[in-house]
User: Fold this.
Amino acid sequence: MKVTTLVYPSAELPEIKYYAITNPSGASVMLSSLGAGIVGIWVPDRGGKLADVVLGYNDPRSYMADGPCAGKVPGRFANRIALGKFSIDGKEYQLAINNGPNALHGGPSGFQNRVWESRVLPEGDGVEFTYRSADGEEGYPGCLTATATYRWSADNRLSLELKAATDAPTIVNLTNHAYFNLDGEDAPSVLDHELRLYASRYLPTDATQIPTGELAPVAGTPMDFTEAKPIGRDINADFEALKIGKGYDHCWVLDETPVEGRPVKAAELTSARSGRRLTVLTTQPGVQVYTGNWLEGCPESISHGAYHDYAGVAIECQNFPDAPNKPSFPSAILRPGEEYRHKIEFKFD
Assistant:
């Protein structure tokens, strides 16, 4: 395994570091200290030709405060919190409102818009990113230390271990927000990609995309991906009753529960055109699928082009949205002495 470090000095931002990890077959990943992000993954198609299958930007600085949150680790709480409010032990906290009436991805200065400390792992197969979030940052209580550790393997598996510890009760929900297009990041759309989700239930939402609390069966609805189907097959269905809006941006409830911290299958994404397949595994209870419904107008792509809506799909393994306000959902509270620890794996073949 070979790790190459690139440094991008900036007058406006702290120094940004890129790390390229290449395995013996030549497949590689590129990681960034801005948002602990994935900015590129080069894997072979059925004919052995390498292509970058992750949407990314030409300028490293473009990742700061981008609307799509491309490739990064959002936090302290990924996804939405209703009205930006939650309570711990009877004390209410107010977060910034940055998505309609709700809080999204930790706020305007969330983890995705911070430059993390970084180091190459001693084994030479990965990188560890660390961010220390101060008490009161973006309205969250407690000093929280988060780490995101990526490893790249000889069989084209990118593993991500997310950990956090706090000195006071707080909430945390971490994931990765990469957008995938298995035909290459410069391909126009993922609507013909086939997606399978290992989930027979999903979380219905209100009109502001806050879960109602119900775990509803997907059977008989456009949300049914229990058998692989093209992403675009039902994307223009009449979703009014589901309050889905434009495209998919919902959380599915995984059927299998991890045992002893071993990741379980969450999703499979395949492209008949390129022959590539992505299998996603996780220890998290849910997977948010976002079909890039609002990518139009985002920064210039790494291939000097423009991304359009549905150019990529994000498969975000995480706790349920608004979990701090839903007692029936898995708890998002982290207390001193406890460790938040979850794994996500992206396996390409």
